Amino acid sequence: MQLDFHYYATYCAAILAGYSHEDSLSAAWSAQFVDCCSETVLKHIGGPVSAATTQLQLELMDSDTDILGLQKITRIWSSFHFLPGDLYAERKKCSKRFLRKYRLICNPNGKLLVDTVELARGQGIQAAGVAMHILADTWAHRYFAGTPSLVINSTNYYFYELIPVGDHFFERPVRFNHNPASADDPETGLYTGTIQQGGENSIMNLGHGRAGHLPDYSYARYRYLPSWGDYQEVIKDNPSDYEHAFRQMVYALKSLRTPGDRFETGHYDEEAVLPWLEQIREIINRRQTDASADWKALAEKISGHEVEDFDAEKYHREYIDTDKEHRDDTYLGRFIIAALSQKSMVTNRIFSSGNMLAGFSVDFQEKGFRGIRDYRRLLKKLQQEDSAGSEKEETK
Fold it and tell me: pTM above the 0.85 mark?
């Protein structure tokens, strides 16, 4: 998803969930800042780089794809953009190496989503915004994994857009180019995707890179053959998924502000959304690559307030000018704490499932800090075991 949904639609969801204009703006800002909080930004403001919630293209291009580099990438993208749907998913006739990656495929309504929303409970509006970004992305990014993988994330020439015409759909082959500077063109069906790379762990095979921005456009419907799917066709209906994402955000935000409540999967708000449903569907289905203006107009109509445009640097100066002892009490300080908590939780869940793709994780509440030396010794041991095991495993 993009700015249009993460910022303006999240604001709408918060207003409909009963939040004030100011809190709705704060939740929306945090939701969108998840796409901005890179190591580069954190170094600029003097924050902890371990709180990064995204990676810039240049950062990814400079990333090592050794075991440590891949774990770092997976911690960020699986925690905030491709939340795994089932860390214990089963699949027959595949290697353990393939299964570990298969279990990181993003899907909505997984157990980790409950953990994500509940982690934000009582932790402030910044944590709520972070959780809403992750929730929304489980719908847009389903079927892709937040780890570089050819055998999971790649697609091929069998890729067709389904364009509504009256009461039926017209199918048109999607054409991908590989120039990141070129704009997507919904009228001609020309979209930008990453270059085909044969390396299993190539950065080009991270998330939905091979499918370009199609998962980020609410109007898009398409069918394709995911690399993980054994040549079984998958149909992605973004309008339906985005509507479910919006309804679920309203329900989740209501839950977070209700004392004693608990978020449950498979629940979607109906009452608060219904008066605006027709207009929401019109925005979602409109064939445009940026729906920010439409969502902003609806946000101001619903709330009766002017909704300021997103400013990624809005809270930077406050954080920079505050002494280190009190930075945790600033707006960005609370966002950073929420980000660190989320990344720690997801990494621990992945590690506890027996999967090392996000790295080693200690349960701090039970064992306290173990130190980097312990980590390095364990990593060396695991590398040796993985090397020995890979010689015996079948390749997918």
Answer: yes
